[in-house]
């Protein structure tokens, strides 16, 4: 079986195709194709309230290319989800209709709670007996989840992400609300470690040189971000080899991760390099596979 997920975020659109392998009742999702394109809907929506015609046309072409890729790979089932920018955009209904008319593809615009539920499907595979604060920073929103003994005890989605933060689309009240929610839950559930998802924390973890599966410490994240902040945008691209769409949002995203860790008084974070697209693959498997094997790992 082959499954595919198309994640339409505020910063980028991602397409992942995975094959499903059954090893004696244990399911492994092996990634066989992954493409990321920086569409940057958030730049339009968080500034003007709607997505420009230029980007709409490019978006339809991109989805058509993904559709052809899915056909070539003989994908059995796929899911297309859009998050913060699309659910905020004034012309989202028009875009969804144009996509359907042009290529017959249906896009699900999901809220923050559904987004967190999908990510939860993969995050639980990386948890142990510690009490965790999960921080998922996207371009337009940030999801927080509390896990105790691998069970989700609380969650909240805030319309604050790396692109919104970069453009100053925020309020003092929102930051205070996020801080209060984290501080109260950190005390209530005795949190001991963070777990971070999102492209920016993945990149920071890569830059740290830490071994996969090992935690990164808050002090290390601070040191890496201080080094990035001391560089010009050109240096970040040419010396650190960051993509242009990563070079400008990595610091705003890092500030959200670091703020959440400080509010929760957490010194370390796991970074499993999974996200919404992986949760969508899991959800597709559950929907379309009659038998329920144990999902054991994600292979890259």
Descriptive report:
The protein is an alpha/beta fold and 300 residues long. It is built from 13 helices and twelve strands. It has helices at 41-48, 53-72, 84-88, 92-103, 112-123, 162-166, 172-189, 199-208, 218-229, 233-238, 244-247, 250-263, 276-288; strands at 2-8, 13-23, 26-37, 77-82, 108-109, 132-137, 142-148, 151-158, 193-197, 216-217, 268-270, 294-299. It has a six-stranded mixed beta sheet with strand order 5-4-1-2-3-12, with helices on both faces. The chain has a six-stranded mixed beta sheet with strand order 8-7-6-9-11-10, with helices on both faces. Strand 2 (13-23) and strand 3 form a beta hairpin. Helix 2 (53-72) packs across helix 4 (92-103). The protein is globular.
Write the layout of secondary structure elements.
Elements: E1 2-8, E2 13-23, E3 26-37, H1 41-48, H2 53-72, E4 77-82, H3 84-88, H4 92-103, E5 108-109, H5 112-123, E6 132-137, E7 142-148, E8 151-158, H6 162-166, H7 172-189, E9 193-197, H8 199-208, E10 216-217, H9 218-229, H10 233-238, H11 244-247, H12 250-263, E11 268-270, H13 276-288, E12 294-299
Parallel strand pairs: 1-4, 3-12, 4-5, 6-9, 9-11
Antiparallel strand pairs: 1-2, 2-3, 6-7, 7-8, 10-11
